[in-house]
Amino acid sequence: MAFRLGAQSLARLKGVHPQLVRVVQRAIEISAVDFLVLEGVRTPQRQRELYAQGRTKPGDVVTWTLTSNHFVKSDGFGHAVDLAPWPIDWEGPTRFPKFDAISRAMFAAAEELGVKIRWGADWDGDGKPRERGETDSPHFELGA
Q: Are 33 and 98 in contact (CB under 8 A)?
């Protein structure tokens, strides 16, 4: 079964680097789980709001930096997206396998298209998600 991005997900890709958009669009076609785009381009104000979460505002810490590849770069595009399985399940026992399935689709699409990406649950790129406390499973960005 091939999934498709909905109108809201497509709108959230506006301003994201075209290479990363192509990877996301191909990944949804080959993914074993449905997913949506939570966020693409992010403003510095939005980043400050997220940074405050779990520090000066209620909630869990969701970011560790005030800078972000979600920001528009010198090339005029954001270089990151946050994706989540649909329906969203942040706490359930199946959340990690679904994020891992999205990751497999994203890396397969990236390889097919010749685009390097990084995943927030495997920052060191060793293929072992979350082994060093990497917890940003929704985050994908263009790699170097």
A: yes
* Ordered strands of the 80-85 beta sheet: 35-39, 80-85, 139-142, 117-119
Q: How far is CA 131 from the centre of its chain?
A: 18
Kindly report the pTM of this predicted structure.
Answer: 0.93
Bridge partners, 103 (sequence order): none
pLDDT at 93: 77
* Percentage, residues of the chain above pLDDT 90: 78
The one-letter amino acid at 50: L
| Tens-place pLDDT, residues 49-92 | 988 998 999 988 888 888 899 999 999 999 999 999 999 888 87
Task: Give me the residue spans of the domains in the chain.
Answer: 7-142
7-142: which CATH architecture? 2-Layer Sandwich (3.30)
Q: How far apart are CA 72 and CA 7, in angstroms?
A: 22
Residue 1 predicted with pLDDT over 80: no
Tell me, rounded to whole angstroms, the distance of Cα 116 from its chain centroid.
14
35 beta partners: 85
Written as one letter, the residue type at 113 is L
SS3 69: coil
Contact of 65 with 140, CB cutoff 8 Å:
no
